[in-house]
Amino acid sequence: MGVPLRRRSGRSVYRESTPAAAVAGVVESAWTGLVGCRRPLTVFPDGCVDLVWDGRVLAAVTTVHGVLRHDLPSADWTVGLRLRCGAGGAVLGLPMTELTAGATPLRDVWAAKARRAESRLAGSGTPGEARSVLEALVAERIRDVEPDGLSVAAARALRAPGARTDRVAAELGVSERGLRRHVRHDVGVGPKELQRVLRFHRFLNRVEAVARDHASLAGVAADVGYADQSHLGRECRRLAGASPGALVRSWTGRNVPD
User: Which of 107, 151, 219, 256 could lock 86 by a disulfide, CB 3.0 to 4.6 Å apart?
Assistant: First the structure.
């Protein structure tokens, strides 16, 4: 799904935690959002899928194609599990190319199983109880399907600056065509596009350093694998609809040149 640029904004707070061991192979993190009043939220792509309970609907949320403007309902809290990049198609049981960007009610994918989970989630009195329901749901799913992990391994390898798809395919023992087929099924885009998303996410992880004057935009651009700052600017506008300077300003409130 992607994450908010800031973990704390006004009255809202976003916190991550380590998932249960039973689902750690396919779940990157569990998270809780303390929401408060209804408000829009901007989330940025990271190639992952989140299973999100917002107090009303259990949904699979994906943003691999670009920034998502997501409306948070008025609620005391929301809970989610972030599936590892490359695990979405196997866990959900359908090609990720069939999901549109945004939230897809899980009942549209898992029918009665998702409705039963929603009933249990509605009866959860705390974020911890709701998280346990989600983890049990995913644990049951992976017992049924036994994901092979190839796309997760591919995504991990493609995160490295300068990674080449032919070498990644060879390391995983598949052809380049096979790698494309697996990654498109499990992420929703091919390896090259996934690399662009992962590189952009590396930049987002460095925005705070720029905002605190611990790094420059040009230096971060080089560190995370962009050819130059102009390249970073083009990719930010394509994937976030904003310039790098605007993203830094949204974090700090200061005027930062692009």
Answer: 151
Q: Which has the minimum average pLDDT: 41-45, 59-63, 135-139, 207-211?
A: 41-45
Q: Which residue has the tokens 């196997």?
A: 90
Asked if residue 2 belongs to a domain, the reply is: no
Task: Tell me 28's DSSP state.
Answer: E
Q: What is the pLDDT of the chain when averaged over all its residues?
A: 89
> Would you say 199 and 235 are in contact if contact means Cβ atoms under 8 Å apart?
yes
Provide the domain count of the chain.
Answer: 2
Given pLDDT bands bounded at 50, 70 and 90, which one contains residue 38? low
Asked if 166 and 47 sit in the same domain, the reply is no
Q: Which of 90, 118, 145 is the last residue of a domain?
A: 145
Q: Do residues 115 and 42 both lie within one domain?
A: yes
Compute the CA torsion angle 183, 186, 187, 192 (nearest 10 deg): 0
64 and 45 in contact (C-beta within 8 Å)?
yes
pLDDT at residue number 76: 77
Q: Check whether residue 55 and residue 163 sit in a common domain.
A: no
- Residue 105 binned pLDDT confidence (cut-offs 50, 70, 90): very high
| 32 contacts 15 by C-beta, under 8 angstroms | yes
**Owning domain of residue 192:** 150-252
Indicate if 225 and 111 belong to the same structural domain. Answer: no
Tokens 């899928």 found at: 49
103 falls within a domain: yes
Can you tell me the mean pLDDT for 147-176?
Answer: 95
